[in-house]
Structures are given as C-alpha cells and as structure tokens.
Amino acid sequence: MRRLVCLLLTALIALSVNLSLSMAQSAAFSIQAPAELQPALSALYKARYGAAPTFVEADGDLIATNDRALRPSGMAGVPPHFLPDAFFVLARPNAEAEAFVAYAVSPDGQAALIESGFLPKSVTVTDQAGNKVEVAQPVRRVITPYSIATYLVYGTGSADRLVAGGYLGARSPVGAARMSAIDERFPTLSGYTLNQREINIEQVAQLAPDVIFTSARTAWLDTVRELNIPVVLFQGESPELLKESMLIVGQLLGPNALAHAKAWGDYYDSIFAQVVERTRDITARPSVLFVGESPLRVISGEMYQTDLIAAAGGRSASEGLTGYWNDVNLEQVALWNPDVIVIAPYGNVTPQTFAESPEWAIIKAVQDGKVYKMPSWVAPWDTPVPDSVLGVIWLAQKLFPERVTLDCKREALYFFKVFYNHALPEDEIAAVCGS
Amino acid sequence: MRIVTLGKARDAAAASDFRQQLAYGSLLLPLALIAISLLLGLYEIRVETVAKALLSLVVPQAAEGISSTELTLILRIRLPRVLSAALIGAALASTGAAFQGIFKNPLVDSNLLGVTSGAGFGAALALLLGGTALMVQGFAFGFGLLAVMVAYAGSRLYSSAPLIVLTLMGILIGSFFTSLTALTKYVADPLNTLPAITFWLLGGLTGVTWSSLPLLALITLSGSAFMWAVRWRLNILSLGDAEALALGMNPTRLKLLIILCATLMTAAAVAVGGVIGWIGLVIPHAARLLVGTDHKRLVPMSLALGASFLLVIDNISRTLLPAEVPLGILTGLVGVPILIVLLRRSQTVW
User: Fold this and answer.
1) Which chain A residues are Cβ-neighbours of B209 within 8 angstroms?
2) Mean pLDDT, rounded, of chain B
3) Which of A15, A6, A56 lies closest to A32 in space, CA to CA?
C-alpha cells in the first residue's frame, strides 16, 4: 500500500514537472500576428525551437505585422524584417523574443524560410554593368573589394555578413578609429589585399565568399569568374544609381537588408524634397566650385559631386568639364567666378589656403568668405555611399542658411543610428558638422 | 676672326655669318613671344589693359581704371607663368645641348644622369605623404640632385672609361628611381593621390605664382650665363679628352662643372614644371638644323628656341580647353612632327 502511494506520488510529480517544462518551452513569449504571416512564423519558430509557437490575438510579447502604420519612426529606425514587408515590433522587453528576432533576420533564419518555401532559393539581379547575376540564397559571406560597396552593405544593416572589404576613408588614424568604433571587426575585415586593381586570388578562394561586390571598373574580373563565384558590379555615379545599388544589395542580402535599402531611398527622397520645397522660388542657383586635393583641381560634370550640389539646390561651376578630376587655371576660375567654393573632405586644402592667397582674392567666393570644407565621418560624404545624404544636408544648410532648417548634427545622429546602428559621440559630430 | 676666302669657301663663310646672326638674333624671339603670350588667355583682356598693367610695374599710376581682377590676372597669374615657361624651356634645351656635346651622343638629354627620374620620384613621394606644393617642389629638387650625385659617385669607382661608366651609372640610377616612382604610384590611394601623381608627372604650369619664380630664375639665368661663357669650350670637349688635354684644357673639371650646372638647372625646371619631355632632346637638333653644330651658335639658339617652344606649348595648354592639357603630352604631339618636317628639309643632322 505505501509503495503504491509512493509510486503514484512520484508519477504525479514527474508528470507535473514534465508539463511545466513543456509549457515553459512554448510559453517563453507569445506572438501576435495576422493569419497570413503565421505559417512563416511557425516555420521559423520550429526551425529555432523545434516546437510550435504560441499565437495570441492581442497583447503579445512580439508583434509581427505587415501594416506599415505600425512602423516605429525616428531614432528607432527600420524594424527587423523577416519577409518582404513583414516585420517585428517588440511590445515589451523580452530576451527570448529578441533572440528569436535576431535569428529570424540572420542567414540561418532566412535558410529556414527558404526551406519552407517562403523565400526564393536564389535571386537574379541585373547589376549596374548590365549583367544578369544569379546568387544562391541565403548569402552568408560577402567580400567587397570596391571600397564604396562596403558602405552599401553597412547601410543595409547587413555588416555581419561581411568577411573582407576595402574601406574608403578609413586609412587615416582618425578614420580607422571611427570605423573600429562602428564595427569592432573592422581591423580583421580590412586586413586583406583587395581592391579594384589587384586581388590575391588564393585569399579569395580561402575566404569562400558567396558573392563579390565590386565596381564595373575592376581589373581582375576574369580570374575570379574562374572560381565560379557570382560577381555583382556597381557603378553609382549619381543619386539615382546609388539608390539602385542599395536596392540591388538589399535584394541579395535578404528581406531585412531590402527594407533598410528602401528606407534609405525614402530618406534620401524626403531630404531632396525638403530642399526643393524650401528653395522653390530661387531662380538664380548659387554657383559652387568643388575642388579636390589641390585648389585648382576641380570636378567634372560627370562626377557624383555635380548631382550632390544640384540636390542641395546649387549648380556646379565646372559642370561643362568631362572625365574625372580636371586641372584648371585661375583664369578659368575667374571666368566662372563661383559664389561658393567647397573643398572635398580628403586632402589638406583648407579655407585658409584660399584666404591667404592674393591670387584667389579676385574670386567672389573668397571675397564673401564662402569657402567651406565638406565634413565626413568615415566614408567621404561626396562619394556615392549612403552617407552622402549627409553631404547634401550639410551643403544645403551652407547654401541656404535661412531657408533650409535641416540640421547636420541631428540628421547625422539619426542616420548613423538607423543605418549603421551606431551612436555617434555628440560633441565630436557637432564639431565635425560645424565646419 | 674673319678669314679672307675665295670661291666656294666665300659662300660658306657668308652662310656662317648668316647663321651667327640668326643665332644671336633668335634671342629676341622669346622676348617677343613673352609679350604676345601675356595677351593670350581664357579671360578676355584688351591689349591696352595689358600694356597699362605692365607699365604700372614701373609707374604705379598707370594702373588706374583697370579692375583688380584683370590686374591680378595679368601680373600675378599670366606674367609669372609666362616667365616660368620661358625659363624652363631655355633650361631644358640648353642642358640637352650641353649633354649631347659632352657625351658625344645625339640621343641624350639632361635626364641621362637620372635627374628627371629622381625629381619625379621626389615629387611622387611628397604627394604620397600629402605634402604642400612647396614640399613637392623641394622634394623634387632634392631627389633630382641626389640621383645625379649617386650616379657621379658611382662612376668615380672606375677610372678606366669614365664617360661610358658615367653614362651607364646615370641610366641605372635613372631606372632605379623610375621603379621607385612606380612603387609610389602602386601604393598610392587610387581615387585621389594616384591621379595627382600622374598629373604631376605629365608636366604642367597650372599653379605657378611668383613664389616659385625667384629660385628658378636665379638658377636658370646664372646657369645659362655659365653655359654661354663656356660654349666654345664645348666644341673642344666634343673632340675627345685627349685632344682637349693637348689643347690645354682640363676636361674632367669642365665636364664636372657643366654637369653640375645642368643638373641644377634641370632639377629647378622639373621642380616647378613637372616632367616635360622632348625639349632637351628635340630642340638642340632643331637648333643644329638651323645654325649648325658649332656650340658658339648652338647654345644661344637652343636657349632661344627652347624658351620659345615651351611658351607656345604653354599657351596652347592653357587656352585650348577649359581644363589644362598637360605639357608633357603637347610637347611630344607638337614637337615630333615639327622635327620630322625640319629633318626632311635638311640633309645633315649631326
């Protein structure tokens, strides 16, 4: 009799422990999602935890939705997307839910969705040199010998997939320190011999990338194509092409990257629209001369900076020139007589150089004191990287200080938080923007 | 010294007289071209304005009524540039003629001992380190001199055939510095520094202002004066060392002095104007076609032709297009056809 009671008790305890355990496993957090998203979420949850998720009608810990009205705005940025147009919102802090979200947007989560048929097995894009490239999904390892393409990957929030890359503007100690602060893997990622001119083909084979992002002007494409690695070419010398290149990267790196790419495009459009709105009635656009590493080296009409100046509401004085950087003499500058001179962020030309020179005193911009050096954080803001939207903001603010109310520092803080997931040091960015 | 001659010899003497007048008279050509070049430029300035501006250097009141823009352009932009072009052209051409005489080799110019290659490396290094324009000029000058010193020091190790060894050392040092320049271009940032180095190596007088002129003028004028003074001795040097010794000259010392002078002039010229090829090689030949091989006439003619040629080239470079065309490109494109035309009209070259 006593033995029977002992047995019964043990069984009861075991049962209740079992029950509570299994309940704990599947009741860690609840998901609130519309019916059409539930199959995908179940597939994800099963792949992660090996069980079915708990769906609730309301007050879930984790909300999954495709309703754009529920998107958070401001510094919260772009919500994590697990499917095109479907994203997560955390209703309350929950460690398990956050881990699940991180899993869902990672390559593993993407793989789970691909297996259950919710995402395609491969994506075919037309790159900016006109080639059709098919890339198997998910992409786990990306290398970017093109130092501008690296920032496209960061801008889409997919820097975790980067294994090696060139970094424009990060050669100087200041640039390198800032980039290390943004991404602690930077020293490793930038330590390979990769650039547009030459590449160590064996290093590439060892890195085993799933896709290579490089520029249309790269010299070593044939060698790498022998390795049967998909190569996507970029050529973004205008804002429209830059938006296109962001979307290409987004399409290749998963729904979350695509959402970030679209958000960037929307942000750029909104800035551009604001500038257009505020300068609508100005007929005489200020003429801006953009100089590079020497006072007499100017941009041509075919370079990205020409469109950047136009987006900021100005007009490039040297838009009649063709090619790449051009050397001109002071007589030509006197003919143009620009209203404003902007110095590129790189090189050691400063507004002092112009103020101190008696020859430049004949130019209107120097007489009015409107000579400015464009700031930068890591990547120069006058090159076709996502950060160039800040270049537009800064220049618009300088050209039309009374009309344009965009604030360089505020927008920089927003941009880096949303697209790089990095909090800029406030006083440093204020000093950088203040120039 | 006039020698009384008869018949064919008299014609030869008359021709020689004409050539002498041509050689000395040609020195007026650069002066005329300087005046004309001041009138040319992208910014339209009237002739009277230019004349008044130049007059204002002596008589300040003459500058009344001229806008400060035009005054600055004429006196601070065009004038130093035009003068630099004339000085550089004269320096490169006369040093080319001198080297062709010393080394008895019609295919050399002043870069034989590596001064231009060294200067090119110096400038590339300065641009790689992100230096100012002054630093670039200083490095170019310094490394140009260094290259020649190394070549000369190396040749002193062999006393058996000094001229040949000197030529060989010069070629070796020149190619060594050329390789170093290639290395600099390789490690340079391809988006910004590399184009800057390439533009500099193609030659140009874009940013020349009065600050670059004093040293260049000092070295070129004193060097040219020295070349002028020793020009008849170059005739004797080109006969060979044994003949020169027999005639009472010290060929080693004279060659050393001429090499030193030529190196300084070339280094200064390259430091200001970049690598401008063809002038040192082609202009002495063109001068020989006009006045013969006698260095008494050849040196003045080279000076004048070199200055005039580079003045014309620089005018084309700065007025043809809104952007500057590098001088090194134009000297080859324009100079070589001119030389071919000259060759066809004449029977002898050397």
Assistant:
1) 357, 359
2) 88
3) A56
Q: What is the ipTM of this complex?
A: 0.82
pLDDT, tens digit, 9 for 90 and up, residues A299-349: 999 999 999 999 999 999 999 999 888 999 999 999 999 999 999 998 888
Pair type for strands A122-126 and A132-136:
antiparallel
Would the CB atoms of A328 and B41 count as touching at under 8 Å?
Answer: no
Q: Band the pLDDT of A268: cuts 50, 70, 90.
A: very high
Give me the mean pLDDT over the B92-116 stretch: 90
The CA distance from B51 to B55, in Å, is: 6
Could you tell me whether strands A86-90 and A81-83 are parallel, antiparallel, or unpaired per DSSP bridges? Answer: antiparallel
Q: Return mean pLDDT, chain A.
A: 88
Instruction: Give the integer Cα–Cα distance in Å for B144 and A135.
Output: 54
- pLDDT at residue B346, as a whole number: 67
Residue B271, CA distances (Å) to A343, B6, B144, B275 in order: 26, 52, 9, 8
Compute chain A's Rg from CA coordinates.
Answer: 26
Predicted confidence (pLDDT) per residue in A24-38, tens digit? 444 478 888 888 888
Q: In sequence order, what are the residues at sequence separation of 6 or more whose Cβ sits closer than 8 angstroms to the Cβ of residue A341?
A: A288, A289, A290, A291, A354, A363, A365, A366, A370, A371, A372
H or E stretch covering B305: helix B295-319
Strands A30-32 and A62-65: parallel
Confidence of residue B161 (pLDDT cuts 50, 70, 90): low
Residue A92 in tokens: 């309350």
- B residues 114-133 closer than 8 Å to A (CB): 130, 132-133
The verdict on whether omega for the bond into residue A138 sits within 30 degrees of 0, i.e. cis, is yes
CA nearest A226: which of A209, A197, A201? A201
Distance CA(A101)–CA(A240), nearest Å, equals 32
Decide if A397 contacts A404 (C-beta within 8 A): yes
* A292–B68 CB contact, under 8 Å: no
- CA B239: distance to chain centroid? 25
Closest-CA residue to A356 (of B57, B209, B205, B137): B209
Partners of residue A32 on adjacent β-strands: A56, A63
B137 interfacial to chain A (CB closer than 8 Å)? no
E strand or H helix that includes residue B123: helix B115-128
For B179-233, write each residue's pLDDT tens digit.
Answer: 999 999 988 877 778 888 998 999 989 888 898 899 999 999 999 999 999 999 9
Residue type, B39: L
**β-pair type (A142-144, A162-165):** parallel
The pLDDT value given to residue A25: 47
Q: If we measure between CA atoms, which residue out of B209, B212, B272 comes closest to residue B73?
A: B209
**CA B37/CA B52 separation, integer angstroms:** 16
Of A168, A197, A359, Cβ closest to residue B209: A359
What percentage of residues in chain A have a pLDDT greater than 70? 96
Is this prediction's pTM over 0.80? Answer: yes
Min Cα distance A331 → chain B (Å) is: 6
**pLDDT the model gives residue A199:** 77
- Report DSSP state, residue B348: -
Of chain A, the end-to-end C-alpha distance in Å amounts to 90
Two structure tokens written together for B19: 């050539």
Q: How far apart are CA B303 and CA B158, in angstroms?
A: 34
Contact residues on chain A for B76, CB-CB shorter than 8 A: 358-359
